[in-house]
Amino acid sequence: MSGRRQPDIESVVSALHPFSSGLEADGYTLQVGLADGEGLCVEIVAGPEACEDCLIPKEMFTQMIVSTLDSKGLAFERVTLVYPNDRN
């Protein structure tokens, strides 16, 4: 790992809270976890009433997440976004 300290998960969850709120309104939950040392995994989980057409393109959402984290000083080497259909 590089000389910098990895952000704590509570800070990440707090920074991404605005996304969580919007996703919940559309039937999704946002789960966050640290991934192998210097990475972050953000997973969007669909509930039974999730609006499939409400998710923006994955690449765009990834950029929004990275930009939000960077603006809060929460940089990661890698951010992986997992959409519901990625698990099928």
Report on this model:
The protein has three helices and three strands; from the N terminus they run ααββαβ. It has 88 residues and is an alpha+beta fold. Strands 1-2-3 form a three-stranded mixed beta sheet, with helices on one face. The longest helix is centred in the last third of the chain and has 14 residues, at 58-71. The model has no long low-confidence stretch (mean pLDDT 90).
CATH class: Alpha Beta
CATH topology: GMP Synthetase, Chain A, domain 3
Order of strands across the widest beta sheet?
1-2-3
The fourth-level CATH homologous superfamily is Fe-S cluster assembly (FSCA)
Any idea what the shape is?
globular
Total strand segments: 3
Query: Count the helices. How many?
Result: 3
Q: Give the distance, in angstroms, between the N- and C-terminal Cα atoms.
A: 32 Å
Low-confidence stretches: none
Tell me the fraction of residues in β-strands, as a range.
15-25%
What structural category do the secondary elements indicate? alpha+beta
